[in-house]
From TrEMBL:
Its EC number is 4.4.1.2. Keywords: Coiled coil, Pyridoxal phosphate. Belongs to the trans-sulfuration enzymes family. This is homocysteine desulfhydrase. It catalyses: L-methionine + H2O = methanethiol + 2-oxobutanoate + NH4(+); L-homocysteine + H2O = 2-oxobutanoate + hydrogen sulfide + NH4(+) + H(+).
Length: 367
């Protein structure tokens, strides 16, 4: 069912019979007369190509409205506007470094309080809830430790305390999980990743299922203006058409690699949730990460994820660069940790490349 929905997402059904959606570049729209509108006035507010993506994405997420933003961070920033000074948000302890950086800034600048909690520990989370707590912000598969959280009990907890549950679903995508159906209030993605899927669009998307939240976010989106361009909106829609195929393939490649790495002497720790194409590896101390990255032939040392190519990232100086060392320490983000976004290449090529790069990375010594 989702496969068909994805393959045929947002067919236009316009009078031309076009299969692919038109890209409306016009920023302004002629009014039939004073006080009248075609539904489109100015592109920041609404654009037909962006609307086509947003409407089809909202359906895919089982929500009522989506908002396409100019990056994943803009999606998170859009959501932050729902909160005011002294509001508290409980946040996944292990999460994307850019989100940590933004929350840190918002705390210092605007007084919104972000408390980092371990969502594996239900009791700890419950104990942190106060009268000021307004939301839970969860990465259901955390970045970079790949910790899988059972979110279900938190939907009930949130309901009991009237908290918003916000899910960063970038890793799982609507193909593997639709949190709004399960009880979440807001779902966001860095659409730069699996949604776009080809490392050529920077984008984000926020989806909700409640009319009031939808209206608030619509107003903020228009007011702030970090909306997605028509061309990028088109590219996201095109990327979605193959989401199921890409996820299945990268997930199967990642599962095989995770199993293989368990047996490798060079690998100290395999961090994998069993789902998606995302896994992290901690190399043993007698393997040099810089040498490993320089020796790759097929996998690419680059900072992103969710595309067709296998990318390898070094969180210590890349995704989590602005996290203080003491915080990195607590999360096991050290100089032996690499994060892999497994692509859709032939699995044997990926495995061979990693094994040869590990051989080059060996610096000797004792384990
Ligand atoms: C889980 C997660 N959320 C949000 C973001 C931010 O997205 P963007 O880079 O599109 O701004 C990222 C980026 O890597 C991410 O991994």
């Amino acid at each position: 069912m989702k496969d068909t929905e994805l393959a045929q997402i947002a067919l236009t059904h316009d009078h031309t019979g076009a299969i692919a959606n038109p890209i409306y570049l016009s920023t302004a729209y002629q009014h039939p007369s004073l006080g009248q509108s075609t539904g489109y006035d100015y592109t920041r507010t609404k654009n037909p190509t962006r609307s086509a993506f947003e409407e089809s994405f909202a359906k895919l997420e089982r929500g009522i409205a989506s908002f396409a933003t100019s990056s994943g961070m803009a999606a998170i920033q859009l959501i932050c506007n729902l909160f005011k000074p002294n509001d508290e948000i409980l946040v996944s302890f292990d999460l994307y470094g850019g989100t940590f950086r933004l929350f840190d800034y918002y705390e210092q600048q605007y007084g919104i309080q972000f408390k980092y909690v371990d969502f594996l520990n239900y009791e700890e989370v419950t104990n942190q809830i106060t009268a000021n707590t307004k939301a839970l912000f969860i990465e259901p598969i955390s970045n970079p430790q790949m910790i899988a959280i059972d979110v279900e009990p938190y939907y009930q907890l949130a309901q009991k305390h009237q908290l918003l549950t916000i899910i960063d679903n970038t890793f799982l995508t609507p193909y593997l999980s639709t949190p709004l159906e399960e009880g979440a209030d807001i779902v966001l993605h860095s659409a730069t990743k699996y949604i776009g899927g080809h490392n050529d669009v920077l984008a984000g998307v926020v989806t909700v299922k409640d009319d009031k939240l939808a209206q608030q976010l619509f107003d903020f989106h228009n007011m702030i203006g970090a909306t997605l361009s028509p061309l990028d909106s088109y590219l996201l829609q095109r990327g979605l058409k193959t989401l199921h195929l890409r996820i299945e393939r990268s997930q199967s490649n990642a599962q095989q690699l995770a199993a293989k790495c368990q047996d490798l002497e060079a690998i100290d720790q395999v961090l994998y949730s069993g789902r998606t194409g995302m896994l992290s590896l901690r190399l043993n101390k007698n393997y040099n990460v810089a040498k490993f990255l320089e020796s790759l032939d097929i996998c690419i040392f680059a900072e992103s994820l969710g595309g067709t190519e296998t990318l390898i990232t070094f969180p210590y100086t890349q995704t989590h660069v602005d996290m203080p060392d003491s915080e990195k320490d607590k999360r096991g983000i050290d100089e032996q940790l690499i994060r892999l976004s497994i692509g859709i290449e032939d699995y044997t090529d990926i495995e061979r490349d990693i094994i040869q790069a590990l051989k080059h990375a060996y610096v000797g010594g004792i384990l």
